[in-house]
UniProtKB/TrEMBL annotation:
This is Probable membrane transporter protein. It is a multi-pass membrane protein. Pfam families: TauE. InterPro entries: TM_pro_TauE-like (IPR002781), TSUP (IPR052017). The chain crosses the membrane at residues 40-58, 70-90, 96-116, 128-145, 165-188, 200-218, 224-242. Keywords: Cell membrane, Membrane, Transmembrane, Transmembrane helix, Transport. GO terms for cellular component: plasma membrane. It is found in: Cell membrane. Belongs to the 4-toluene sulfonate uptake permease (TSUP) (TC 2.A.102) family.
């Protein structure tokens, strides 16, 4: 892999670590597109997967006392169903339409938050059907287009969760999904010595990003955290809409 690839990948991994460990993600959606400038998208995804798993493990340890089994349990059945459906449909599913749908949903969550802040309306509890559907959409989008974050992040943010509880719950949920995807990649023989070496060489930037994310998480207030998290969600949604439009 070229020097240019490693320069871009180092920046992408650093930003992913900061956003994922400090704010439960958002900027991570930029990693694969940036790395794909100098490698195939498949190689970029394969390089990122071990890195994401290590980030998830670090987050789970750091937030081990701050995550909700209730939310993970309620979202996981739908997510597993979404992964199964994605496994059987990924060959003919149009990723452009999926990215447009997920991006639009992310911006709807942001709009809902903005309206609630303006008029002071409290979030209502979601039905089991809605929670199952959001989990399924996340699992499906994660398998098809690596875009499963916005449905779950938007839902958890809309619950008004405390910042550490939000990051911890998000980390446990996506660690489970990423672990399943990693097993799938191994079964499909996607890993190579080159991609694993690249993942290893990027480890210092992973560590730096995670530590910076943890530091920022504890420095900012709950309200500022919520606004930054929604900003990241808006950026991710906009990026998905842009990518989807380019693929049409």
């Amino acid at each position: 892999m070229s020097v240019e690839f490693y320069l871009v990948a180092a920046f992408a991994v650093l930003m992913t670590g900061v956003s994922k460990s400090g704010f439960a993600g958002g900027l991570g959606v930029l990693a694969v597109p940036l790395m794909s400038l100098f490698q195939t998208p498949q190689a970029a995804v394969t390089v990122m997967m071990p890195i994401l798993l290590v980030m998830d493990c670090a987050n789970i340890w750091n937030y081990r006392h701050s995550w909700s089994w209730i939310y993970v349990k309620s979202l996981m059945p739908g997510a597993l169903c979404g992964i199964v459906v994605g496994a059987f449909t990924f060959q003919w599913m149009d990723p452009a339409l999926l990215k447009l749908a997920i991006g639009g949903m992310a911006l709807l969550f942001v709009l809902q938050f903005t309206c609630a802040q303006t008029i002071g309306r409290q979030a209502r509890d979601s039905s089991r059907v809605v929670v199952f559907s959001l989990g399924a959409l996340s699992g499906f989008a994660s398998f098809i287009a690596h875009a499963g974050g916005p449905p779950v992040k938007g839902y958890l943010l809309s619950r008004g969760m405390e910042k550490s509880l939000f990051v911890g719950t998000n980390s446990v949920f996506f660690f489970t999904l990423n672990l399943i995807k990693t097993v799938s990649y191994m079964a499909l023989a996607q890993y190579s010595q080159e991609t694993l070496t690249a993942s290893l060489l990027l480890t210092p930037f992973l560590v730096l990003g995670v530590l910076l994310g943890f530091r920022l998480h504890h420095l900012i207030s709950q309200m500022l955290f919520t606004r930054i998290a929604y900003l990241f969600l808006a950026l991710a949604g906009t990026k998905l809409l842009w990518d989807g439009a380019l693929l049409l």
